[in-house]
# Entry
Amino acid sequence: MNRSIIAAAFVLVAGALGTAHAGPRADALDDITDAMDIVGDASSGCYRAAMTELTAIQQLLRDESEGRALAKIRSLKRSLDRCPRAVGRLLRSAEDALEADRRDRRDRRDDRHDRDDRRDWRRDDRREEPKPEPPKRASNVPYSDFHAACLETWLIHEIARDNADQATMGALGANSSMACNSTTGLGRANYSNGTMMHTDAGAWYYPNGTMAKSGAGAYYYPNGTMAKSGAGAWYYPNGTMAKSGSGTWYYPNGTQAGGWQVLEGWACTTAGDQHCKRYKSLLASDVEDWRTFAVVQLAARAGR
# Structure
């Protein structure tokens, strides 16, 4: 069989095994294919010396095994005495293309490692920097992530603050500690004098037996006057409405104030710096009922 036909068959079979990617590998593959064409028309000695190796090199390039292909090219270059010089030139061209590609890959790898090293250094630097501490919470206000019983006793204690004697406030302080130190809330509980403090249904009572909070959510002053209705209206200790359920605010004398900012401005000016400063500290809480009652409390003090 004519060697040119056999060589062409080698090329076709190798071509059917894969498609080369663009770039240096494709250039090297073109050189090897051209060399195979020349070897197919060369002497039988050249054919026997080179064709099998060229076919193997071609397949290695198609399999993206450039390193093994480069090693075979270097080995084959020493066995081309019986082949035309053009075959050697094509092998050197393929070798140069693969060497250049190898250098480029090595350079890119080194660059990537350098970037990784720099990124690691930056991360190390960041790790060495002290992390900013979260903002400290005010210790004189409750927060919305307190459990319900704890939040309720905080609010009851504040509602009673200007409206109860020291003994009552002391007892309320004890119930606050009991409720807030519990991780699961509070069930049925009594004051030390045996008076009911908290029911299973969620109602709270003052030490004198007056209801402090109903199970439905209404709050009361120690004298029995409603502080907050279940519908969301707020009242001053004298029974006058402070804030309607629809959001309208009133002065302690019953005159409409409009928005809470108007009432706040009047109350701060009238009650004095000490009360105004304390009021503003209470606004650190994110509990809406607490913040609302802070306005009611300030205005009540200003209205006395």
The radius of gyration is 45 Å. The chain has two domains: 24-118, 148-303. The mean pLDDT is 84. Residues 24-118 form one domain.
